[in-house]
Structure prediction request, 319 residues.
Amino acid sequence: MARTYQPVGPLHFLCSPLPKPQLPRHLLAGRFPPSLKRISLNLTIVPHPFGTPVNYVTMWPTGVTIPQVSTLNDQQGAVAANAAIVPAGTPSGGINVFACGPADVIIDMNGFYAAPTDLNSNTAIGVGTLLSNTSGGQNTATGSQALQNNITGNYNVADGSGALQSNITGSSNTASGQGALYANTTGSANTASGSYALNQNINGSQNTASGYNALSANTTGSYNTASGFYALNQNINGTENTASGSFALSANITGGGNTAAGSDALHANTTGSYNTANGYGALQNNIASGNTATGTDALSGALVKTGLSREGRSHTEKE
Prediction:
């Protein structure tokens, strides 16, 4: 199987000192995905004191017997360095190091090689991707810490740093963008496209968010569709809302069954339900239910009545 190289860090580790060969140090275990196969690093030894020979330093994967070969020799007792690629140990990817002679050992990890797809048809590319996965299958994670905490969730796609990072059992979610569906744990069948889209969703399902911060505060609301910058941004548990346009329904919290098309449409609505707003600023300050407005600034005043219908420009209704 082809392996992909993933640069990291560099990550620095200092074993100080290593005076006893019978005490190997265990490093890196559990830091990287299960598909980790090889670790790329630079090894530096600093003898104690200077001029004291360090016969050899050996690095090898956790879970196997120490090999009869060295990674670095330092018969002169000077500071010495060498690049190495060390197989990752099982089951947690750790490596061991021991020095025959008193020395500080400095390890600078600069990358790793991993099989992009495992036996459960999961594909993980990036540091921390699918790190905690145990039985989840057919997930795809690309980007630092994408789907990092997934355990049993299936059929998820996460593309971007922190995308679906907290997901545990949720399935059939698609997240594209930094922090998209970041907090999702059990919600399923959500689609988030854009940085922080559906960022706080926990168990809401079948939501679709497209645009920066779209539905970013949603936690339990389901069947919402948000398209546009900050669309349905503050929605928490409102359901069956459709918002298309920048700031459309951006203040909605619990209102349900609303449709807003146009920048700032139903912008201030918080709890009103079954409203339809079509046009820039339509029903912009509405907090009531069952209203229909079509046209720029239609019914844009501070609405508290229900059941109103207006077409045209700059209509307002107040108590």
Q: What stands out?
A: The longest strand covers residues 4-15. Residues 125 and 142 are 5 Å apart (CA to CA). The radius of gyration is 28 Å. Residues 312-319 have pLDDT under 50 and may be disordered.
